[in-house]
Design goal:
The protein is mainly α. Helix content is about 75%, strand content about 0%.
């Protein structure tokens, strides 16, 4: 719904899903983290960065508890937190989250996507050497059948 620009409807469904998950015993894990992460992304697109950071932080804590800190989903959460920290004007916090993201055990098929997000965030921070290195990792780790997609996303 969010991708279709139906943000109000998306927010209603996500809030309802979150309320249901919170009401179920033992449902503090990956499912709730995914819902919180989706709601955080919606808040980010609405420019509500503080709320998005709170939701994404809670999602990261739940993912860490449910899946372990080294799980690839933890890396994706760290990248999202880094992007939000940039938007909130917190460069040091952003760098910490982005370093955590790159240190996570990411499956090969997701490594290029993560590196692309982290590289863009490093660029936004003005860390151009780090961005170039990370974006090169994104290009080198992409599946050959998806090379054109990453080249397009980089604007090359």
């Amino acid at each position: 719904l969010h991708a279709q620009g139906r943000n109000d409807e998306a927010e209603q469904y996500l809030s309802r899903a979150l309320a249901l998950l919170e009401g179920m015993p033992g449902q503090g894990g990956a499912e709730m983290a995914t819902t919180l992460g989706n709601l955080a992304e919606l808040r980010k697109t609405q420019g509500r960065f503080d709320e998005a950071m709170q939701l994404q932080s809670r999602a990261a804590e739940l993912r860490d508890a449910a899946l372990g800190e080294g799980h690839y989903a933890a890396g994706l959460s760290s990248a999202a937190l880094g992007e939000l920290a940039i938007l909130r004007g917190q460069p040091d916090e952003a760098r910490r989250h982005l370093a955590d993201a790159m240190a996570a055990e990411i499956p090969t098929q997701l490594r290029s996507t993560l590196a692309l997000h982290v590289g863009r965030a490093q660029r936004d921070l003005g860390d151009y050497k780090a961005a170039a290195s990370t974006l090169l990792q994104a290009i080198e780790s992409v599946d050959p059948k998806h090379e054109s997609t990453i080249v397009e996303q980089l604007g090359l």
